[in-house]
Design goal:
Elements (H helix, E strand, L loop, with lengths): L1 H23 L3 H4 L1 E36 L6 H15 L5 H25 L4 E31 L2 E7 L6 E7 L5
Antiparallel strand pairs: 1-2, 1-4, 2-3
Helix pairs in contact: 3-4
Length: 181
């Protein structure tokens, strides 16, 4: 068990020493690397067709039915009931007088209601013009540039790369020098 602990401690110490050494020194790539400029020969756009949605509002005028009721007063019915009750009360004797009053009230109210309806404005149906709208979506095909195929020349050799933006007349290139073993 002690041997395992000792082995782990040695490995961790080696890693710590290696990390410290690397942190203080530039890598071989950084030492052998520099930047230069290359001439752009061509930049061809990379075009893709996309479907684009275009929302819009569609509106129209529409006739909408409207119901307007005439004024309906309860006064003729009430007045008819009172008059009918008075007339019924003058007829008969005893319990018959009470029945005649009730019957006169009901009959008078009914007659009064009928007379009142004949004199009221009739109910009306008409239409009102209203604007109605709804959302609709139209689609169209559209070309979009996704990037550029760029051909550039560096020290007499042509290279091709893909770039997000059009580069202009020249581009910056990274030059790395490595020994050929």
């Amino acid at each position: 068990m002690n041997k395992n602990i000792l082995a782990c401690a040695l490995i961790l110490t080696g890693l710590a020493i290696n990390t410290a050494a690397v942190a203080g020194h530039p890598s071989a790539r950084e030492v052998n690397e520099r930047f230069d400029y290359a001439k752009v020969i061509s930049a061809e756009p990379i075009v893709r067709e996309v479907r684009v949605s275009i929302p819009r509002e569609e509106c129209w005028d529409e006739d909408v039915p409207v119901y307007r009721s005439g004024y309906q007063s309860a006064t003729p019915m009430i007045l008819g009931g009172i008059i009918g009750g008075v007339v019924g009360n003058t007829m008969g004797k005893g319990h018959g007088k009470d029945a005649a009053t009730v019957a006169g009230t009901i009959l008078g109210g009914s007659v009064g209601r009928d007379i009142g309806h004949d004199r009221q404005r009739p109910s009306e149906y008409s239409t009102v013009r209203e604007t109605r709208c709804r959302q609709v979506v139209d689609y169209r095909e559209e070309e979009r540039i996704e990037g550029y195929w760029v051909t550039y020349r560096y020290q007499g050799e042509d290279y091709v790369t893909r770039m997000q933006n059009e580069p202009g007349n020249r581009i910056r290139v990274r030059v790395t020098v490595q020994p050929d073993w």
